[in-house]
Amino acid sequence: MSSESSGFLFLKEDHDEVISEPSDCWDILIVDDDPAIHSVTKLALSGLEYKGAGFRFHDAYSGAEAIAILSRKNSISVIFLDVIMETDDAGLQVVRRVREELNNQHVRIILRTGQAGSIPEEKVTREYDINDYKTKTELTRSKLVTSLITAIRSYEQIGQLEYQHKAMDSILSASKSILGQTDIKVLCRRIIKHLSVILQCPDKGLICSKLDGNNYIQVLGGCTRYETYFGENLAEVDSRIYNEVEASFSQKNINIQILALHFLRSKHRKAAIYIECDEVITRTQLQFAEIFFANVSIALDNVRLFVKLRDAAYRDVLTGISNRTNFIERIERYQKPQKNDYLLVLLDVMNFSDVNNGLGQEVGNKLLIAIVERLKEIYPTAKLLSRIGADVFGFVILKNEFNITDFNEKLSISFCAAEHILPVGFKIGLCQQQDFQSTGIETLKVAYIALNQAKKNKHKEGVYYCVDMEDAIAWRLGIIRQLRHDFARNKLEVWYQPQLAFNDLSLIGCEALLRWPLENGTYISPAVFIPLAEDAGLIVDIGQWVLEQACQQQKRLESAGADICIAVNVSVPQFKVKGYAQTVKNTLLKYGVQPKNIELEVTESVVMDELETVINTLQELKKLGVEVAIDDFGTGFSSLSYIQSLPIDRLKIDRAFIKGLPNDDTGAIAALVISLGAKLGLKTIAEGVETQEQAKFLKDLGCDEVQGFMYAKPMPEHELIEFINKQNN
Questions:
Q1: Strands 217-222 and 205-211: what pairing?
Q2: Which one, 429, 508, 634, 682, has the greatest CB density within 10 A?
Q3: Reduced to 3 DSSP states, what percent helix, strand and coil does the chain have, rounded to the nearest 5?
Q4: For residue 242, what are the CA distances in angstroms to 151, 189, 232, 233?
Q5: For 535, how many CA atoms within 13 A lie in the half-sphere containing its CB?
Q6: Phi then psi dihedrals of residue 505, to 5 deg
Q7: Radius of gyration of the chain (CA)
């Protein structure tokens, strides 16, 4: 149900047609062992009517026969009962059995006796709940009519009181049953059932609604044969009912045999209850029905509110499609062991933040809407199309209807967003039905594993989930968890690799390198855990810890007479921390280290990430006196155009341009970097030098400094001390 379909408000109608009271007969039972009394009584009351209804007489000639009739027929209004029949108290025994055994408290009883004074009148009236007690000689026609009419009125009042009591009980019970119900079909079924109790008719009916100006009347729910017509056009369900309901909308009338009651209205919608009644509907019944409708109004308002809340919880406001919560709940139904018919497709919009930041959020929103429209156009049969994340969409489709190459081609067409034509790239993660999990969240999880793998791949083809991916993720999470644990317990180590001057191989400094030892004495490679530390958000804290370790090491070396500079690597996340230069300054002051004795190595990726911000930070560091080196220089593609504007001291030639020297590499890039450094007044240092041939080649090119296994491997502090001592000797 949409929220529009349930937007009802209660409207109490004024019914133009008068509902008449029942025009049947009043049933009278004559109980007497004298047949003549039966004849005389009928003759005296012949032609008599009350409220337009005549009297229908039934005969019993003994107490036992009377009880038998009363057991079969509960419509008896009044009993003319002889006291003395087969026994002296036969009539009184009938009264007792009627009230106690048959539990009939409605029927009115007029006792008659041929022996005046045989039983005290006051006692009988008080103890046996009778209307009158007369001798047969007293009951002239006038008195007989008076006693009967009085008894009939009493019977009618008791019936009305009992009906009112039951009707109110039913309304209270119904209110508890329907209030809080959020399923429109269940709600309609309960409304019909409770209304049938109030109207004392079968629970055969339906509830329907219609928008103003629209001929379409929609079935909202019902009972018996109408229950299956939920959401259908009433005209197609039953044209006769359609006409009855239309009449109730336009004329506000009620058919006294088939109730078509117009009872709810919102700003643009009307609603009606249609219920089949075998008996004439009384005004009293309609009054109680209207009391009940007040609660129906509240219940339907609750449904409307629930639908709105559900839409808010399950719909993406921007695009109108399902959101992540709805997708997770509904994808579970597709998890069927041994089935592999469907495919879950996750789609990630690449560089969406650039659109938002560069062109504005409004353009970004229109782009997302355009993507949804494109997806609907490409795969109109797709199921569960949903916005899973800010820029992630998902849907389920039959495998035989999906072709990844065709999908990519259609997605590669530029999108229109406002006045912009935007080429957009996508990454696609795919999960087959055989890999769906028992819960929606787990199924989405494995699909995201495939999507994340797709993000790491350069090609555009989608990546299918496989179990090995999850094993890799589990291993990765385990490594990150262990890294957190070991870092918190100070188990990481900092080793140092000496850096030498090429001209005389004197020690000029060393590079601080992070090491992660395991319990078994082995080490996890920095190439493995450094990227994981960055992804896990640990690298900022670890980087600061390395800087502090380097500062402490520098002070210890200084105390030992070795005045050298220690180079510390800085990651992209560290550089993005606000006030990073001030953090470095505070650290140097904390440990009393001269700025000239600490060098910060930043990669080209750091430099090119946010150039203006990086330049400002580097200038602050230069003012402090801290030297800055560009690490892995030459591996990027944009550095040369900005190198003159960077406040740096040293270019570090990446090992990738050295390992093939001199036989497998012409050394063109190494020569370019060395020449560029010389012209810009920057020192150059080659890392990864492992052979004498490499060293000679670089020295001949004019490289200033060297670092590599040929001279010294990374080493812990005590080995570094030994290395320095040998250098000094």
A1: antiparallel
A2: 429
A3: 50, 20, 30
A4: 45, 19, 12, 9
A5: 13
A6: 55, 30
A7: 47
